[in-house]
């Protein structure tokens, strides 16, 4: 199944796609086994991506970025998944953190953080999830006391992507005693701040090459100038950016499904059973036809969402539809393609096996499938 140029793409974006393909295929993929063994990618690969102009593509040029749009990010994430390069945490840094900094940072903060973000010297993460609070922001207990010229931060976070390598972490913390979703703020914690500690690099069933950590904050002094956005305004900031986060995950989902379909197409052409290639069996052809159709239909809807988001028209409901549908499709395609690989599909050295476990998280983070359905259902039924 050959990748089709999206209707929203143009010659510039296709040039970015070619550059990203070369970067992932030549510099990241050959090191994936090493990254999996050490539990994180090499930091130098972020610097290399920055040198090539692949980072901060949607950040204005005055801050060191490329001055592009969400479409540039979509191309980067698509190519990462189509290359099978799972280690780089661009979906978090480029897809989430970049836009929090761009939307809510002061001019001084932008000039302090964005150039390093764009050249790859500043790796970033966002810390929302806690041991006792996943998708429910109301359950956050990490808190910060106003001490006049600084905040005193205490608490812990878990399941934080890029947590081991991150130089800058946006932490969601409670800054008033008021319960519920109110009273939450975004505080930027930087590497080297006293009391900021990293726990385990968590042992996951998939995405072994990408770092996911526990973070601990013990009386961390956070300067007032590291408040991101409005005080006690984090809930609104988070809700505003969730649509982009979720459509970004959907982009990864359909790209991964298309990648799995491609490698399985080649496999069934070469693998023989009963004296002829698997591709000559009607059942196999039907399986491939079904998956190809589902991918094509999903791609069409997602392309529409990308255009809408680029025009500032994507709403939370359609982002939720894209997220749950594309990631559940990715899960189904991974399962069916592994089955078509037979025993080889169960072997870790085969890309299909790694993709099967790597992709399982897609229906969980960024809001579970169940939460996506609840958002859609409420829009219909109140």
Average pLDDT number? 93
Report the uncertain regions. Answer: none
Shape: globular
Distance between the termini: 41 Å
- Strand line-up of the largest beta sheet: 1-4-5-8
Biggest pleated sheet:
4 strands, mixed
Provide the gyration radius in Å: 21 Å
Task: Describe, in plain words, how this protein is organized in 3D.
- The chain has 382 residues and is of the alpha+beta class.
- 49% of the residues lie in helices and 15% in strands.
- Strand 9 and strand 10 (276-277) form a beta hairpin.
- It is globular and about 80 Å long.
Lay out the secondary structure:
Layout: H1 11-28, H2 32-38, H3 44-52, H4 70-83, H5 90-104, H6 107-119, E1 124-127, E2 143-146, E3 150-161, E4 168-174, E5 184-190, E6 196-201, E7 212-223, E8 227-228, H7 234-270, E9 272-273, E10 276-277, H8 282-310, H9 316-341, H10 351-358, H11 369-381
Parallel strand pairs: 1-4
Antiparallel strand pairs: 2-3, 3-7, 4-5, 5-8, 6-7, 9-10
How would you describe this structure in keywords?
single chain, 382 residues, alpha+beta, four-stranded mixed sheet, four-stranded antiparallel sheet, 15% strand
